[in-house]
Write a structure and sequence with these properties.
Helix content: 25-40%
Strand content: 15-25%
Radius of gyration: 30 Å
Number of strands: 24
Strand order of the largest sheet: 6-9-10-24-23-22-19-12
Structural class: alpha+beta
Number of helices: 18
Distance between the termini: 78 Å
Length: about 600
């Protein structure tokens, strides 16, 4: 055998091909799978790059060692590359034309019995997967997701630099913000009683970089928010493509980001179609009316409408009375559903009741007739107005939601998605982008009745100071926008409020005293007083982008070491109790937990 100098490998486990036949090769990796054929033992050896089948004969001195070796042990094998017999060629593997006949074996690490099946993507309890995440990451699907994530970030970085952006790093230890989600606080040892906060986003720092004159900033930014988990949001931390630009309008921001997002999704979409840019713009009010939400899934060809006037003064007393009392009636078309059995409509009614609604009223238009429990209460002119307003034709059905406007949209959104799924209407294999624009600057808190910021408090109000002083705050729009893909919000952004007096007035409307704002945001306000350029930006979430590209339903599938739904790191044991001496160093004393009375 030829002498091989490297102690571990001459090739990776994805490198050998038919033109390597008769070569001597050395591979290192994990024992992925074994198949004992009596006089032959086949071992699939796996590394980061792929898999190679190796074979050892029963008369070999190491045959019994390999026979007893548990899966996921790490080995180094050296031997001759041979062609597989034609009937054993595996066309699914890049290395499927060859196998390596083992001559020498070195055991690098012997594995215990693994608590989950690595050589399969079969379902395993989430707590096991997270507790042994390093094993879970060896599984092909999860492993590929993390590689995809790395490649997406590399491509984003390259595209942003090519677009003229400069990469910066902003502080991780910073000041707590009174707006947004809950902060993660870090006690200061050398400043007793004071705390740093982990940044919810680099918002103020990136704006200050614009004030400093850098013009185009970007960062692959870690963000920290003490929020509850959900499918599209990790508890604790997440990453975003954070960027900011000076001397730009809203359209300039869109024109800059659209080629980046379109390029990323085309590069990694595996043949799925991607919306051409410029992406569609949808005003917030229009989105709420037509789709029931501010993150519409445009793959669903259902557009909802307000049909309150159809029922005002009609014979359908429940809707008529509610409309007179200020409620609205929203129509949700169900294209082509007239042929569905009665059970289809009953099932959707039961579903709506499960969502806390009294049900989903409906009318079916079939063979020139209007059918269903509501149809008999509407005369011909009203039915014609309904057909025209809702955009339904013969063969379609239309469902109704009747409630106060703020509550109706919630069920409209869910019903639109549900009906789209039930009827198989969701367009497959595509990424549908849109911008949602013209968000309200303020909203009224339903519990307190007070006026609050609707989104980002640092957004520029449309109309500036004059609009703040003279207009109805609840009618005021902001230069604020979201980028949405397939019903998932990738990011919020805005043209920023760079004028101190405009900012102070906006906060005043939201109930903040001038001196309070001066204290809380002194760094930014003081900077703006020394000449601030008009600027704006956005921050698409990297985790969500990769989740979409990997076609995963949960964001934890594309994060290397995620927490569970309770914000616990089962692998590292965090959060954890801290020894009392450490707490004393940080000037912290814990309250004893009260024992409940029996």
């Amino acid at each position: 055998m030829n002498t091989i100098q490297h102690p571990y490998r001459t090739h990776t486990c994805n490198a050998l091909r038919s033109n390597d036949v008769n070569a001597i090769a050395r591979l290192s990796g994990w024992v992925h799978r074994k198949r004992d054929h009596g006089n032959l033992l086949f071992i699939d050896v796996r590394d980061h790059y792929g898999l190679t089948q190796c074979v050892i004969h029963s008369d070999h001195a190491e045959f019994e060692t390999l026979s007893r070796l548990k899966l996921e042990s790490v080995i180094t094998v050296t031997g001759k590359v041979v062609a597989r017999a034609q009937e054993t060629v595996n066309s699914k593997l890049p290395t499927g034309d060859i196998e390596l006949v083992i001559d020498t074996l070195t055991l690098q690490s012997v594995a215990d019995q693994v608590p989950l099946q690595v050589n399969s993507d079969a379902d395993t309890a989430e707590d096991i997967r997270l507790r042994y995440r390093y094993l879970d990451l060896r599984r092909e699907k999860v492993h590929n997701n993390i590689v995809l994530r790395s490649n997406v970030i590399s491509s984003l970085r390259r595209r942003m630099i090519e677009a003229g952006f400069t990469e910066f790093q902003t502080p991780i230890l910073t000041a707590s913000s009174p707006e947004g989600a809950r902060d993660y606080l870090v006690p200061s040892r050398i400043h007793p009683g004071k705390f740093y906060a982990l940044p919810q986003a680099p918002q103020m720092f990136k704006q200050l970089l614009m004030v400093a004159g850098f013009d185009r900033y970007f960062q692959i930014a870690p963000c920290f928010r003490d929020e509850d988990s959900r499918a599209d949001r990790s508890p604790g931390e997440f990453y975003q493509l954070d960027f900011e630009m000076s001397f730009v309008t809203q359209e300039d921001v869109f024109a800059t980001l659209e080629p980046v997002l379109h390029g990323i999704f085309e590069e990694f979409s595996k043949g799925k179609s991607v919306s051409p840019y410029p992406f569609r713009r949808i005003a917030y009010d229009e989105a709420m009316l037509k789709y029931g939400c501010d993150k519409p899934d445009l793959r669903i060809p259902i557009v909802c409408t307000d049909v309150s006037e159809v029922f005002r003064g009609s014979g359908f007393g429940i809707f008529a009375k509610n409309v007179e009392a200020g409620s609205v009636v929203r129509a949700i078309p169900a294209p082509g559903s007239a042929a569905q059995p009665r059970s289809f409509f009953d099932k959707l009614n039961d579903w709506a009741r499960g969502e806390g609604a009294p049900g989903l009223g409906y009318i079916v238009f079939d063979k020139g007739e209007a059918k269903g429990p509501i149809a008999k209460f509407l005369d011909a002119p009203r039915l014609q107005l309904l057909r025209e307003t809702a955009g339904v034709a013969d063969g379609d059905a239309v469902f109704f939601v009747c409630d106060k406007a703020a509550d109706a949209v919630k069920l409209v959104d869910k019903a639109r998605r549900r009906i789209g799924a039930e009827l198989g209407l969701i367009k497959p294999d595509c990424f549908e982008f849109c911008w949602v624009v013209d968000f309200p600057m303020f909203e009224r808190n339903e519990d307190t009745g007070k006026i609050e910021f609707s989104h980002n408090p640092f957004s520029m109000p449309q109309g500036g100071l004059e609009a703040l002083n003279s207009g109805d705050p609840l009618a005021l729009k902001a230069y604020q926008y979201d980028i949405v893909c397939n019903g998932i919000e990738l990011s919020s952004g805005a043209i920023r409020n760079h004028l101190p007096e405009v900012m102070l007035r906006a906060f005043e409307i939201a109930g903040y005293q001038r001196d309070e704002v001066e204290q809380q945001f002194s760094g930014m306000l003081n900077a703006f007083r020394y000449g601030a350029p008009p600027h704006g930006g956005s921050a698409p979430g990297i985790d969500r982008m990769v989740m979409l590209l990997a076609d995963e339903p949960n964001i934890r599938e594309v994060v290397a070491f995620p927490m569970n739904q309770k914000a616990e790191d089962l692998m590292m044991g965090a959060p954890a109790v801290v020894p009392s001496e450490r707490l004393r160093e940080l000037h912290i004393r814990l309250h004893e937990k009260l024992t409940p009375k029996v």
